[in-house]
Each structure stands twice: as C-alpha cells, then as structure tokens.
Amino acid sequence: MKKINFTIDIAAPRQTVYDLLTAPDTYKEWVHVAWPNSYYDGKWEQGELLRFISPGNGGTAALVKELEKATYILLEHTAVLQPDLTPDVTSEEAKGWIGSTEGYRFTESGGITRLLVELETTPEWIAMFEEGYPAALKKLKEICERA
Q: Any idea what the Cα angle at residue 119 is, between residues 32 and 79, rounded to 5°?
C-alpha cells in the first residue's frame, strides 16, 4: 500500500465542512465532479458499513473504523461491489482494494478549516485519486463557502 494526501483550506467552520462532506445531497454534489452520479448508502457512525456506489459500475464497501464528528473519520475498505451491488471479496481487484483506508482530518483556525484527506491504497488506484480528489475537494470548498 502507498500513502497519498490531499489538503484544502475552506473558509467555513469545521462542523459545517464535516456536515456538508457527509450529508447525502451535498456528498453527491461534491463527489460528482470526480465520480459522476456516485452516492453512498449507510450511516457515518463508528462501526457502521458504508457503501459507495457508482450506478452501473458497482462501488466499494467500507467500515467506519473511527469517527469523531468534525474532527476525524477513518474508513477501511472491506469489499468491491459488483454492478448488481453484490460484495466481492475474492477477485484480484477486491484483494487489492480490501484493507485500503480513507481518512478525513478536520482542523480549524481563525475561521478556516483545513481538510486533510489521507489515503492508503495500492499503486494502481493512485492516478484515479490524484485526478479525482483535487477537483472533488475544490467543489466541496465551493459548497461549504456558499453555505
């Protein structure tokens, strides 16, 4: 696994950034710029399973390993979802994805929230994240700053 990070400063309180990052409607909006029509199913609660779905393409399932609202979220991916949303834990793709992590760290100073996204993933997914996350985070910033 390889670690990669993305950081963005947002002129909004960290509670606002957290709320808009995780709310179903605004999640769809900020993720859409990188992964069109994607959404999630589940609850952002420690111990819960979230399914990140890209209609017609499947998606991934992730366990919320840690969650301190407006401070830190740690997700651990547990399966790849097939297009019919059946979990896959045995294919080579799934084996490469399972165990990867996605962390969101929120810090605030002077009314500016710094959002740090920390990913631990296999090398074959890095290009997708490096292309997608900067655009998605820019959109999240726009959503938070207009709120």
A: 75
Q: Which domain range does residue 130 map to?
A: 2-146
pLDDT for 59 beyond 90: yes
User: How many domains is the chain built from?
Assistant: 1
| pLDDT tens-digit readout, 78-91 | 999 999 999 999 99
Angle (CA) 122-68-43 rounded to 5° is 75
Measured distance CA(38)–CA(31) in Å, rounded:
7
Cα(99)–Cα(76) distance, integer angstroms = 6
Q: pLDDT tens digits for 46-58?
A: 999 999 999 989 9
What is the domain-level CATH number for residue 113?
3.30.530.20
